[in-house]
Amino acid sequence: MLWLGQFGIADGKAQEETPWVGVFPDEMRGPEASDLLLIVQPATAGSVEFCAELKEAVGSVFHKSKVSLTGGLLRALREAHENLREWNRRSLREHWIAAGISCAAVRGNEVYLAQVAPAGAAFYQDGKIRHIRPQLADALEPLGMFDEFWPDFALFEMQEGDRLLMMTPSLAQSLPEDGLGGSLALPADGVLPAVYRQASALPDCGAVLVASVPDAEEDPAILIADS
Q1: CA geometry: angle at 187 spanning 182 and 192, to 5°?
Q2: 207: domain range?
Q3: Number of domains in the chain
Q4: DSSP result, the chain
Q5: Does residue 169 have a cis peptide bond before it, meaning omega lies within 30 degrees of 0?
Q6: CATH number of the domain residue 96 falls in
Q7: 219: Cβ contacts below 8 Å, ≥ 6 apart
């Protein structure tokens, strides 16, 4: 089963709610239930104050329109992109708002990841780390910046011991490879506290973890890492 956790730091303090971390559980539990986890990264100086509104909009649209997980992700990101583009069309360029995003739709042992730059994630399996960043040309610019966009999708069929860690880019860039690997090798409930200790000097950052754990462990939950 999958274990989900998150933490966020804003203005140098660990907080339960931050503009860059969003967790949206499916209220209709059952075999087909799917949760949405996301990290938002402001891409222009004036975008910080819009991040909280953006993540709420993406979470709301996803749960209303997810005929399929990839379809739900695409609709949610497309609507967010169009809303930002509409704002920017009415604004001077120096007032434009834009954001990168990593979204993970989780169902069963499957995780569909959609990313638009700036965005960062790491997948840990069998002691090895694979860094996940947008590669498609249409996913290399933030939401709201240009007319066309297309998120970069990846599918992870999680097996016991696997870890998928989504991070704000500043956090991803600050973690040394050995420190990140050591953190991801820990038991699921120890990963985020270890990452937090390495991130505590950053004024604004966040991370979301999806970890595959044995079914015998406690029921899956969405948790906030202890600081």
Answers
A1: 70
A2: 2-224
A3: 1
A4: -EEEEEEEEETTEE-SS-TTEEEE--SS-STT--EEEEEEEE-SGGGGGGHHHHHHHHHHHHHHH-SSHHHHHHHHHHHHHHHHHHHHHTS-GGG---EEEEEEEEETTEEEEEEESS-EEEEEETTEEEEE---SGGGSS-BTTSS---PEEEEEE--TT-EEEEE-HHHHHHS-HHHHHHHHTS-HHHHHHHHHHHHTT-SSEEEEEEEE--TTSSPP-EEE---
A5: no
A6: 3.60.40.10
A7: none
Q: Tokens at residue 81, please?
A: 């992109």
pLDDT tens digits in sequence order for the chain, 227 residues long: 999 999 999 999 999 899 999 999 998 777 778 999 999 999 998 899 999 999 999 999 999 877 789 999 999 999 999 999 999 999 999 999 999 999 999 999 999 999 999 999 999 999 999 999 999 999 999 999 998 899 999 999 999 999 999 999 999 999 999 999 999 999 999 999 999 999 988 999 999 999 999 975 444 444 434 33
